[in-house]
């Protein structure tokens, strides 16, 4: 219990530090959202309108940077992420809720599938060294070193074009209204196939390599030899003894992967113009949209912290040694 409370205190402090950095870092970028709007409207804005925008966006110099920082914390405590400059006057929470479902559906599902598929193949490759699964290692090593977005560009070049089944961009066919019906869902699935395959091919290779190497290391431990000497079946030794201990490093990696689901595939969403949270972050950066950037960074921060906390709890369940006080 003491260990868990210490970890929670650490995560609370980390959340405060991350939120503080999320506030100050966007404001260090040259320019501001009002200037972006002036450029967008080709300078056809009066001085009074410009001053009103600074006050509306909370960027007036009367409060100063620290006053804006305190106001930001007050908004967070009230559950208010502010108004998006890019999609004004839409609240940031609505922009995020409209985009996060796309990212969770695409990256979340592919991350979970790649973890279980890669871990299973890694257990098989590590336990049965010299089998056909070892022949996959050079291919997986190569694929794990290729960035997601590069595979995406290659897929667009080879598999899309006139008459192709695969769309090259977007999340659904233009003209359709997002709804749970027989028209929208097949279109959304069709548009997600190439981005999902891109992420799956790149990420599953890393899980295979890491799990295979850990299985090889664990297989030489004394308790594995003792388990064999007891007459236990090969399958039970592989799953209950070897794989359970070899899985621990992959649990941490999987937790981090879950945490970065909401923003870890930014370039993939840009390449495919997929309407997820990463693509919205790209638009926010271009427009100097501080509230939207802060809101997305906040979601990413909380996701990573919660995922790490879940990893710590998983460690407590999987490894009895972590439950013992020093």
TrEMBL record:
GO cellular component term of the entry, any: plasma membrane
GO BP term (any one): transmembrane transport
SUPFAM superfamilies assigned: MetI-like
One Pfam family matching this protein: BPD_transp_1
Membrane topology, from the record: Multi-pass membrane protein
Keywords: Membrane, Transmembrane, Transmembrane helix, Transport
Domain ABC transmembrane type-1: 100-311
Transmembrane feature ranges: 7-25, 100-124, 136-159, 193-210, 254-275, 295-318
Protein name, per record: Peptide ABC transporter permease
Organism: Mangrovihabitans endophyticus
């Amino acid at each position: 219990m003491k260990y868990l409370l210490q970890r929670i205190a650490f995560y609370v402090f980390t959340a405060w530090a991350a939120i503080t950095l999320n506030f100050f870092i966007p404001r260090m970028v040259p320019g501001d959202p009002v200037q972006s709007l002036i450029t967008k409207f080709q300078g056809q804005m009066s001085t009074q309108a410009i001053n009103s925008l600074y006050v509306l966006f909370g960027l007036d110099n009367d409060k100063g940077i620290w006053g804006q920082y305190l106001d930001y914390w007050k908004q967070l405590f009230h559950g208010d992420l502010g108004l998006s400059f890019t999609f004004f006057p839409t609240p940031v929470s609505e922009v995020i809720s409209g985009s996060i479902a796309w990212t969770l559906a695409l990256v979340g599902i592919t991350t979970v599938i790649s973890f279980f598929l890669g871990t299973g193949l890694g257990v098989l490759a590590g336990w049965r060294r010299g089998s056909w699964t070892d022949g996959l290692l050079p291919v997986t090593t190569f694929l794990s070193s290729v960035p997601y977005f590069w595979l995406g560009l290659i897929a667009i070049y080879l598999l899309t074009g006139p008459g192709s089944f695969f769309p090259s961009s977007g999340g659904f066919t233009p003209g359709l209204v997002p709804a749970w019906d027989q028209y929208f869902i097949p279109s959304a699935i069709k548009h997600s196939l190439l981005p999902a395959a891109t992420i799956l091919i790149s990420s599953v290779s890393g899980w295979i390599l890491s799990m295979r190497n850990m299985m090889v290391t664990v297989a030489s431990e004394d308790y594995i030899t003792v388990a064999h000497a007891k007459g236990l079946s090969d399958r039970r030794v592989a799953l209950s003894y070897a794989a359970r201990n070899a899985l621990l490093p992959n649990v941490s990696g999987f937790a981090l992967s879950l945490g970065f689901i909401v923003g870890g595939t930014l370039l993939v969403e840009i390449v495919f113009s997929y309407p997820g949270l990463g693509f919205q972050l790209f638009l926010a950066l271009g427009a100097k949209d501080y509230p939207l950037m802060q809101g997305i960074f906040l979601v990413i921060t909380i996701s990573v912290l919660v995922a790490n906390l879940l990893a710590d709890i998983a460690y407590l369940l999987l490894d009895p040694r972590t439950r013992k006080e020093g």
